[in-house]
Specification:
Layout: E1 6-10, H1 12-16, H2 21-29, H3 36-51, H4 57-68, H5 72-83, H6 88-91, H7 94-99, E2 104-111, H8 112-120, E3 129-132, E4 134-136, E5 142-145, H9 156-164, E6 169-174, H10 177-184, E7 190-194, H11 201-206, E8 209-211, H12 214-220, E9 235-238, H13 244-252, E10 256-259, H14 266-272, E11 278-281, H15 289-294, E12 300-303, H16 313-318, E13 322-324, H17 331-346, H18 349-357, E14 375-379, H19 383-394, E15 398-402, E16 414-415, H20 419-425, E17 428-431, H21 445-450, E18 455-459, H22 468-477, E19 480-485, E20 508-510, H23 519-539, E21 560-567, H24 572-582, E22 587-594, E23 598-605, H25 612-618, E24 623-628
Parallel strand pairs: 1-2, 1-6, 2-3, 6-7, 7-8, 9-10, 9-11, 11-12, 12-13, 14-15, 14-17, 15-16, 17-18, 18-19, 19-20
Antiparallel strand pairs: 4-5, 21-23, 21-24, 22-23
Bound molecules: 1,4-dihydronicotinamide adenine dinucleotide and 2-oxo-3-(phosphonooxy)propanoic acid (HPV).
EC number: 1.1.1.399, 1.1.1.95
Keywords: NAD, Oxidoreductase
Protein name: D-3-phosphoglycerate dehydrogenase
């Protein structure tokens, strides 16, 4: 047991547990009744009015008990339910309740009958639980409560705490205004508004501190805790209108997340990135060296897309910043659009449609062909190219492909040994090469000339891959019969006006970089990338990182985890382990992964450590980043 001279007074409902116990009791007792939902809504309304001090507490209690129709036997079920509903950060910090047991109290306007058995498991004995008690009739029905108990009365917590006569600094942790009043009355020294389960403005606005979790409370008080840095202090900045599910995923895990609809130019990002730990972007945001230099806290960048060349990957690595992307989530969306566009181009659908929009009936078969039996040339036989190959064959196209890497053909697709071979043979050429800057003007005047007369070009890869001037010329001259372009050498940062030389040309489909913009793809990315980010922040795992040595280690219980990122020079591991040995720390597991530039080591320790070891590890030569996880 450790003495701090402070007393910690916890509220129960919606603080120690995620729920209001009487709401749960109502769910149990009203189960199967036709008017259950209305009664529960009524109970919740009364609960909130009581918590916010809008009606007298006694009144709220009386009304709720009447509506409950509960029996003694229901309490056992209630306790079982509540056991499953302990607040997340309370359950993960059981250690605190063990070590500071003598200084922890519960003051609740709930009932000892269900609070005692729950908090007992957190080392809080019944005599430190101040709460109401039920009255039962002979048949065991709950018919009321002990009206002499101060806690059944309005602002009863003030009187209760006064009567307890606690010595030392008294800190109250609760979600409601009825907890704050102890501080307002001057009986408690500090009030922490606990918002992990519910955010009540009236409590938060008056609090000395708002604590979104117990981790934050423990951090503020420098008390031992399950994670070294509370998640609400980890700032996440999501740009470019990533799906709101990403916001939900990261906020639900406790991070502080800001969502910005568009991309930011370098100067603005340099300002905005300060203090940000996690940056989420899509294909527009340039994460340049200057941005990375300004990023004083940045740990990880999530590209909510496939392409990552908008990020200075190597420079990020040298700074110990890990980058993840979503390599598969939007591939199917691109493939479906490619198939659709190939058919639309071959049938001159857009030309016919524009004519009709302009009031012209232009029924003709001229320049309208089936895709069946036509040659499709896929350039870049990667994740997208391969899927497209399969679908295109399924609709009867003959597939040819060209890739710089040796890539196995799927189905009956035929590999071309040169780009020229592919261009010579294809009725439609579709580009799916990666966003490597070396692919700039990959398709220029010379390559277009190598294409068959009347062929079509589809580009859903990157804008700089095609020389737009040369393409516009070829379309105007009639050498090419059509094109579908989704990506452009220069794209705007947000929605608005846009100009390209391809505008107004017949049989040219123009789309604003929407190849991967489907609800399904964006929704999937919003799970995939946040999961990678959370896995790295919470456990140190870097599996699937695009610029970093990959490590996965399961989270350990009753252990401490240190993450050390360093320049990959000889002797670092020896130095790290020498420091650990000097502080007599026992390594329970350790895993190192390196590439040419950096080394990344996760070390798990099986016992308490002297905080000075952290300083010593940070001082190890060639350390880039050091983080204590838990
Ligand atoms: N329009 C949109 O909204 C979207 C565009 N994309 C873009 O699509 C492209 C392809 O994506 P994935 O298939 O996932 O990439 P991937 O990396 O799986 O495949 C790319 C393939 O291109 C090959 N390649 C690269 N340079 C080449 C060259 N000069 N000549 C021949 N082959 C070359 C690579 O060897 C690789 O096999 C990327 O540029 C990506 O950014 C991806 C998703 C959505
Ligand atoms: O995934 C990619 O690489 C894309 O090009 C899609 O980018 P976006 O998310 O639409 O900015």
């Amino acid at each position: 047991m450790i003495a701090t001279g402070r007393k910690y007074v916890f509220d129960f409902d919606s603080t120690l547990t995620r729920v209001e116990a009487l709401d749960v009791l109502a769910e149990l007792t009203l189960h199967g009744k036709s008017d259950k939902d209305e009664i529960i809504a009524e109970i919740q309304k009364i609960t909130n009015l009581g918590i916010d001090g809008e009606i007298s507490f006694t009144e709220s209690l009386e009304s709720r008990i009447k509506l409950l129709h509960a029996h003694k036997n229901d309490l056992e079920h209630l306790v079982n339910e509540l056991r499953q509903k302990i607040s997340k950060s309370i359950a993960s910090n059981k250690d605190f309740f063990e070590k500071y047991a003598d200084d922890i109290y519960v003051i609740s306007c709930g009932f000892k009958e269900f609070i005692d058995p729950i908090v007992k498991e957190y080392n809080i004995p019944s005599d430190r639980v101040y709460a109401n008690t039920f009255k039962f009739d002979d048949a065991g029905n709950i018919v009321g409560f002990d009206e002499d108990n101060v806690l059944s009365q309005h602002n009863g917590k003030i009187q209760c705490l006064k009567d307890m006569n606690l010595e030392g600094e008294v800190q109250v942790i609760g979600d409601g205004y009825s907890d704050y009043v102890m501080r307002e009355a001057g009986i408690a020294d500090k009030f922490f508004a606990y918002t992990e389960n519910v955010h009540r403005d009236k409590a938060a606005d008056n609090a000395d501190h708002v604590t979104p979790s117990l981790d934050e409370f423990l951090y503020l008080n420098d008390l031992p805790r399950n994670i070294s840095y509370p998640k609400n202090r980890i700032k996440v900045l999501l740009l470019e209108n990533v799906h709101t599910a990403a916001f939900d995923n990261l906020s639900e895990d406790g991070f502080s997340v800001e969502l910005v609809k568009h991309s930011l130019p370098e100067e603005e990002l340099i300002e905005k990135i300060k203090g940000v730990h996690v940056l989420g972007i899509r294909s527009k945001t340039q994460v340049s060296q200057k941005v990375l230099d300004a990023a004083d806290k940045l740990l990880v960048v999530g590209a909510f897309c496939i392409g990552t060349t908008q990020i200075e990957l190597e420079y990020a690595k040298k700074k110990g910043i890990v980058v993840f992307n979503a390599p598969y989530s939007n591939t199917r969306s691109v493939v479906e659009l490619a198939i659709g566009e190939i058919i639309m181009l071959m049938r001159s659908v857009f030309a016919r449609s524009s004519e009709l929009h302009n009031g012209q009936w232009q029924k003709t078969a001229s320049g309208s062909r089936e895709v069946r039996g036509k040659n499709l040339g896929i350039v870049g036989y990667g994740n997208i190219g391969k899927q497209l190959s399969v679908l295109a064959e399924a609709i009867g196209m003959r597939v040819y492909y060209y890739d710089v890497e040796d890539s196995l053909a799927l189905g009956n697709a035929k590999k071309c040994s040169s780009l020229e071979d592919l261009l010579n043979i294809s009725d439609v050429v579709t580009l799916h090469i990666d966003d490597n800057p070396a692919n700039k003007n990959f398709i220029g005047e010379r390559e277009i000339k190598q294409m068959k007369k009347g062929a079509m070009l589809v580009n859903l890869s990157r804008g700089f891959v095609v020389d737009i001037d040369a393409l516009a010329e070829a379309l105007k001259s009639g050498h090419l019969a059509g094109a579908a372009i989704d990506v452009y050498p220069e794209e705007p940062r947000s929605n608005g006006s846009f100009a390209t030389k391809l505008q107004g040309l017949p049989n040219v489909i123009l789309t604003p970089h929407v190849g991967g913009s489907t609800e399904e793809a964006q929704r999937d990315i919003a799970d995939f990338v946040p999961n990678k980010i959370m896995d790295y922040i919470n456990s140190g795992n870097t599996v699937d990182a695009v610029n970093f040595p990959n490590i996965r280690l399961p989270k350990q219980n009753k252990a401490h985890r240190f993450l050390h990122i360093h320049k990959n020079v000889p002797g670092i591991m020896a130095k790290i382990n020498k420091v650990l040995a000097e502080y007599e720390l026992n390594i329970s597991s350790q895993y190192l992964s390196t590439d040419n530039e950096v080394g990344y080591v996760i070390t798990d320790l099986d016992k308490e450590y002297n905080k000075d070891v952290i300083k010593a590890l940070r001082k190890v030569d060639n350390t880039i980043k050091f983080r204590v996880l838990y």
